[in-house]
Please model this.
Amino acid sequence: MSIVKKFLYVNRKAPYGTIYAQEALEVVLIGAAFDQDVSMAFLDDGVFQLTKGQDTKEAGLKNFSPTFRALGDYEVTKLYVEQESLDERGLTLDDLQDIQWEDEDDDYAEKPSIIVVSRAGMADVMADQDVILSF
Amino acid sequence: MKFGIVVSEGPYTHQASDSAYNFVKAALATGHEVSRVFFYHDGVNVGTRLSIPPQDDRQIQAQWTALAKEHGLDLVICIAAAQRRGLLDKNEADRQGKDANNIADGFRISGLGQLIEMGIQADRTITFGD
Model:
């Protein structure tokens, strides 16, 4: 398939409590096989999906947060995080996992995948897409 | 215009599948094309033929089945989401050693690739969800 579209997966919900985040990630991983131009957006409670130190043992749920660090291997390297959503929840970039990808065009340099953008910047990111799937 | 439709909430609990149904009907009536309807999350529950809504209520699954028959719609239930929630077609029931299947006429079970493919091929992808 030769058409390449810009896909944005929008994540607005907390990682546990509902299944949206987990099933969104399943779409992203399957979608990687289609060689599209993929980005992910994290806003509202969705920013909690990227926090480090998640421990779900007591809740009896699967901790899928390590998967975010593997996204670079699937060529998913643009994770847009909304600044205001972090602020409103008392979070900073330091509370999020260190997610990197290897740039094969730059001697495999490790580069950060997380891009913090303002609410207005997030609107620009969305306006630039062909397909937006919201979870 | 060629539309791709995502339904991501369950029937009756949520209005998403009703809104999607009304949108698809209106789109087809005004000459647009609907390339596929993809059911994800609890939306997969729309496709069970074992639901028995009260007679004086709308019959969500039957409405979709009739619309699919009339217009040759492609109604796809995500297999990963369906397996979690107990929706199986005959093939999958046999393969998994289950004693029953419950997919309604007009629906088919397939993979998440069908969602991505729909996004690539449609002019607009619209999600009906929460």
Observations:
- The interface with chain B takes residues 1, 3, 5, 7, 19-20, 23, 26-27, 30-31, 33-34, 36, 130-135 of chain A (CB under 8 Å).
- The CA atoms of residues 55 and 63 of chain A lie 7 Å apart.
- The mean pLDDT of chain A is 96.
